[in-house]
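Record 1 of the preview.
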Amino acid sequence: MHTPTSTAVFLARGITKVYRMGEVEVHALRGVDLELYEGEFVVLLGPSGSGKSTLLNILGGLDIPSAGSVTFREHNLTQATERELTSYRRDHVGFVFQFYNLIPSLTARENVALVTEIAQNPMKPEDALRLVKLGERMDHFPSQLSGGEQQRVAIARAVAKQPDVLLCDEPTGALDISTGKLVLEAIESVNRELGTTTAVITHNSAIAAMADRVISLHDGRIAGVQHNTTKLHPRDLNW
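->
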């Protein structure tokens, strides 16, 4: 079992993000300071429009801030070229989104294998699918899988390349409660068994109880940080 360390994986300082829509400026982030540590499970909690997805995209190298700096293990992402950001995303980050983005004509195993073929140090697709408890469903197509099973395939795909960081954007947003808990169990297993630094963004405050740390966002700012001394297992969440 992995426990978080005091080694910072991410160090963000003064992160600001402004989107311009015609003559209107939309401030998505307003001077955010943040650290994420090796092996920890963090929930970024906030309502729609609080800036949490923007922050996650910046940490994942999908977007760049308007001001401020982000370092990943002493590599400055805000000064990286597009090619360097592409390499960073490919080699170090696993993404899980609300929608599964599986290829319908490929089996679960084949969907995961797409990632392992380009990764530097991948696990076997079969091992990744067993980690999320889909060992018996490897040769099923997405249309033969439930929504929760498809999301767990997406998680297996994200972790099969053995990323340093797993970033999850509302991974249970399209699922019912019981199915959502199964998906959260899969994410928790990745964090616990592989020691992958994990960040989950959600508007559902119940999910916060399974995290090491809860970072609340409001109006583009960090509104509070809570440390959980006792974490709940996903099945015990009071949804």
